[in-house]
Design goal:
Protein name: Glycosyltransferase family 15 protein
CATH topology: Spore Coat Polysaccharide Biosynthesis Protein SpsA, Chain A
Organism: Lentithecium fluviatile CBS 122367
Helix content: 25-40%
CATH architecture: Alpha-Beta Complex
Oligomer: single chain
Number of strands: 12
GO biological process, one term: protein O-linked glycosylation
Largest sheet: 5 strands, mixed
GO molecular function, one term: alpha-1,2-mannosyltransferase activity
Pfam families: Glyco_transf_15
Structural class: alpha/beta
Bound molecules: guanosine-5'-diphosphate, magnesium ion
CATH class: Alpha Beta
CATH superfamily: Spore Coat Polysaccharide Biosynthesis Protein SpsA, Chain A
Number of helices: 15
Strand content: 5-15%
Number of domains: 1
């Protein structure tokens, strides 16, 4: 009998222990192994309203933080962003937009290098302005190129194929002579000296990109190449700046061209100016190009891998006559004329000097040169991440000092320290 009672006591004890264990485990304060969900989940009453529609999660409004609906539990104050009472800048700049686009000439194989450039341009400028971006190619763009670039650009992207007649040897070019030149330049180890495609590229950028059907919709362009970097915030609309200040062409880096690539370019320019003297404007920047009033070219040019400019100027009769005249001289194929000296000479002779703008505030890199704005206050105010010691502007191989002198502009304060 005593053994039987003990047996029952054990069973009761075990039952009580089981009940206790159940309560402890269901109200355990030990954190679960799951990550807390950060997603907004509507409460039962919110999941459907009377009409059976699901209420929307609040949308992000301009300049405001997303807030949770009032009947969801209050967020832990430690996790709310601490803005120190400062207003966050608006996501998108207010005001009108110019009729402008970015433009990039690229191959499908350039996709990851142009992706980097777009990321920088968007982060530093275009996420606030949402301008369009036109991509041009001598081949069809593939889906990878289109998908990657479309998601990165905040504006509308457009993809154009270059017509064959703008990317081939014109019939007035002697192909044997051109092939011989490429051989010679290869031996002399002149950069891109033996490349046919590079020559088509330079000719296309010199005379055709602004006439592509996709570009005809626009008045302003900003040229972007693969693997460039932007180092400072740009907090104003550079296209509007150009329009408001009557600028037509702009640059950030200028330098001397390799003489071997353009031995007869200046002769061709002089031939053009003698046939079309009406296209040369008074008050131009000849002083930037020549130290002897036009007799010889000093090889200074604006580096055209960056350009913000006016497309109507490039489409003007003056520029078309200039390009056609140079094209017939044959130097795109019998030498290796770059689009940088071709654009620069046109801007310097066919625009008033005040119409060319130096963007000191656009901090830029294209291998191997950096433009880092002179002036520490500017760099700090605009969150710049370039090293001012790498600034090329006041280096002996840069022509930017010459541009300042041509325009009788004082050089920015502190430039001597960067020489
Ligand atoms: N579609 C196409 N684009 C080209 C070709 N060659 C160069 N480009 C583009 O033309 C621009 C200048 O070429 P790049 O290689 O950067 O020349 P670099 O800056 O003078 O060394 C870049 O935007 C290139 O993506 C080509 O054969 N086809
Ligand atoms: Mg380049």
């Amino acid at each position: 009998m005593a053994g039987h009672q003990r047996y029952i006591r054990y069973i009761v004890f075990a039952l009580v222990a089981l009940v206790l264990l159940f309560f402890i485990s269901s109200s355990s304060s030990v954190p679960s192994a799951q990550w807390p969900s950060t997603k907004y989940t509507p409460s039962e009453s919110q999941k459907q309203d009377e009409t059976g529609t699901v209420p929307q999660v609040p949308q992000h409004e301009e300049g405001q933080l997303n807030t949770m609906p009032s009947d969801t539990p209050k967020a832990n104050p430690n996790t709310t962003p601490n803005t120190d009472g400062k207003q966050l800048p608006p996501q998108t700049a207010s005001g009108e937009r110019m009729n402008a686009t970015f433009v990039t000439l690229a191959r499908n194989s350039d996709v990851w290098e142009i992706a980097k450039s777009i990321r920088d341009v968007e982060d530093r400028f275009n996420r606030k302005y949402n301008y369009d971006w036109v991509f041009l190619n001598d081949d069809d763009f593939n889906d990878e190129f289109k998908n990657v670039t479309t998601v990165l650009v905040s504006g509308t992207t457009k993809y154009g194929k270059i017509p064959k007649e703008h990317w081939s040897f014109p019939d007035f070019i002697d192909q044997d002579r051109a092939a011989k030149v490429r051989e010679e330049m290869k031996e002399k180890k002149i950069i891109y000296g033996d490349s046919i495609s590079y020559r088509h590229m330079c000719r296309y950028e010199s005379g055709f990109f602004f006439r592509h059907p996709l570009m005809l919709d626009y008045e302003w362009y900003w040229r972007v190449e693969p693997s460039i970097e932007l180092y400072c915030d740009i907090n104003y609309d550079t296209f509007k700046f150009m329009a408001d200040n009557k600028k037509k062409y702009s640059f950030v880096i200028s330098l001397y061209e390799y003489v071997e690539t353009i031995p007869t370019l200046w002769d061709a320019v002089k031939n053009f100016t003698s046939v079309y003297p009406q296209h040369i404007v008074e008050g131009n920047s000849m002083k930037f190009l020549s130290d002897d009033d036009g007799k010889t070219y000093n090889h200074c040019h604006f580096w055209s891998n960056f350009e913000i400019g006016n497309l109507n100027w490039l489409r003007s009769q003056a520029y078309i006559d200039y390009f056609t005249s140079l094209d017939h001289a044959g130097g795109f194929f019998y030498e290796r004329w770059g689009d940088a000296p071709v654009h620069s000479i046109a801007a310097a002779l066919m625009l008033k000097k005040e119409e060319i703008h130096f963007f000191n505030d656009i901090a830029y890199y294209h291998v191997p040169f950096t433009h880092c704005p002179t002036g520490e206050k500017y760099r700090l105010d605009h969150k710049c991440h370039c090293n001012p010691k790498e600034n090329f502007d006041w280096n002996g191989y840069s022509c930017t000092s010459r541009f300042f002198e041509t325009n009788s502009m004082p050089k920015p304060e502190g430039y001597e320290k960067e020489q």
